[in-house]
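> call design_seq(struct)
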């Protein structure tokens, strides 16, 4: 398990592919796992690695709060795809090492055998990556649905919201949250496919139940 050397272009490509369908290194919220990987990167990923760059900029915004993020920071090799070998801790001072440097060296002339093997490995990696099925972009959205007053039938309000059906929309858990003066709002989770369902559509459909719904707001929005 691992990303390889995150200071190299190859390592950043592995990280970019790993984050293609994920918002974070582990789970659905920023954690010490993200901090451990973030600190292993020497500089922001290039623009063409947009999944890694999006994640990098997002985690960078937590710089002042990084110590308070949940989880326990583990060794870098504990994170990443299972089929990539971690090389960040490999010894580099053994002159009798028979292993071949797949990515070459600035100080030594690359042998023909090493060059051939490196090119074969890179070709295999690119071939494997090209055969991956297209990733469906999804988001987890937390909605706040507010009633008109404390006499609104909240069970009926939730029933109306859940009656909204669309391709790419799945409703999740919900709860009632007090907002004051005896009024409670409905807080409900849903998962959507980004290409099929948007927040504008959800707001239009939910507020159409005007006998029960006063307004709808997006409380949280996370890519998954």
């Amino acid at each position: 398990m691992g990303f390889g050397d995150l200071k190299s272009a190859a390592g950043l490509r592995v990280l970019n592919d790993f984050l293609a369908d994920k918002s974070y290194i582990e789970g659905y919220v920023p954690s010490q796992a993200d901090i451990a990987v973030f600190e292993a990167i020497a500089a922001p990923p290039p623009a063409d690695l947009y999944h890694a760059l999006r994640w990098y900029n997002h985690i960078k915004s937590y710089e002042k709060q990084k110590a308070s993020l949940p989880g326990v920071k583990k060794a870098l090799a504990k994170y990443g795809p299972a089929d990539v070998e971690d090389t960040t801790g490999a010894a580099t001072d053994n002159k009798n090492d028979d292993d071949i440097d797949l990515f070459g060296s600035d100080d030594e002339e690359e042998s023909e055998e090493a060059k051939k093997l490196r090119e074969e490995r890179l070709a295999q990696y690119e071939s494997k990556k090209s055969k991956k099925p297209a990733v469906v972009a999804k988001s987890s959205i937390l909605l706040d649905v507010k009633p008109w007053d404390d006499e609104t039938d909240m069970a009926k309000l939730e029933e109306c919201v859940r009656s909204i059906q669309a391709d790419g929309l799945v409703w999740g858990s919900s709860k009632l949250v007090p907002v004051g003066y005896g009024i409670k709002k409905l807080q409900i989770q849903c998962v959507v496919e980004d290409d099929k369902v948007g927040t504008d559509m959800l707001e239009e459909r939910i507020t159409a139940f005007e006998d029960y719904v006063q307004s709808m707001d997006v409380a949280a929005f996370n890519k998954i």
